[in-house]
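queue> holo job accepted (5,10-Methenyltetrahydrofolate)
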Amino acid sequence: MAQLIDGKAVAARVRAEVQADVERFKAARGGVPGLAVVRVGEDPASKIYVTGKKKAAEEVGFRSWEHHLREDISQEALLVRVRQLNEDASVHGILVQLPLPKHIDAERVISAVSPAKDVDGFHPVNAGLLSLGQPGMRPCTPLGAMRLLEEAGCAPAGKRAVVVGRSNIVGKPMALMLLQADATVTVCHRKSDLPREVAQADILVVAVGVPELIQGEWLKPGAVVIDVGMNRKPDGKLVGDVAFQAASQRASAITPVPGGVGPMTIAMLMRNTLLAASGGV
Ligand SMILES: Nc1nc(=O)c2c([nH]1)NC[C@@H]1CN(c3ccc(C(=O)N[C@@H](CCC(=O)O)C(=O)O)cc3)C=[N+]21
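queue> job finished
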């Protein structure tokens, strides 16, 4: 049986580290780090996630604000709000919750956030810095996944890493972080021969949003599996992108869903906000 990588426990540790650093920050600087979360419309999942982020922010000792805007807000009015937050010295981190309504151009909104306050690491400047291997704000989910590999005692250097999914928010930055850590990286997508690629993976990271897409039998015995997927089944149960039962028979370590990568995303958002408040990277 595989070792279970307890993201919930690691995330609690990361948040405790941030909380201790906030105390030092207060002593040295007077104020506290501030995180502004912008939520547009009534997406029920977004509402739950934003509540979780605000709660975590308050627990570690940040100030936090939720800017809840109407579903029918214009693109221009949303951009104005983002620019106001850029100018606000008490706000160190800005997160615009995705997805945005269809009439909004998400890329333009992300690009409007000051790169120094872009605690999601989604701004083109930060994406560029990551691809160049230079310091910058890094996306929270891949950052959390890297930390979980470390916690599992898995050093990427020299290993074959396979990333399934090529999104700008998880797959691509994940592949770049693994590459920077000296893994040999393959990125898979819908045209890939998945069973064949997955069989090569010492490290497998899956972020596609298809319930139990990856069959346990495909895995290389001893692989370390990071499952970023979060899929709600009709019965309300959450499942990942990896068929967990069969996978845990072959893997040496695996993240559960829930309780794996999800809590790490929020913990790393706290770390990024502290970093932004401390003057960045
Ligand atoms: N600008 C932006 N930044 C984001 O980081 C962002 C976003 N938009 N839009 C939505 C996704 C999703 N996301 C999650 C964070 C934590 C959990 C999490 O903590 N999940 C728990 C509980 C899940 C449950 O029980 O519902 C778990 O996996 O154990 C999940 C999902 C951040 N996102």
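queue> The domain at 140-262 is CATH 3.40.50.720 (Rossmann fold).
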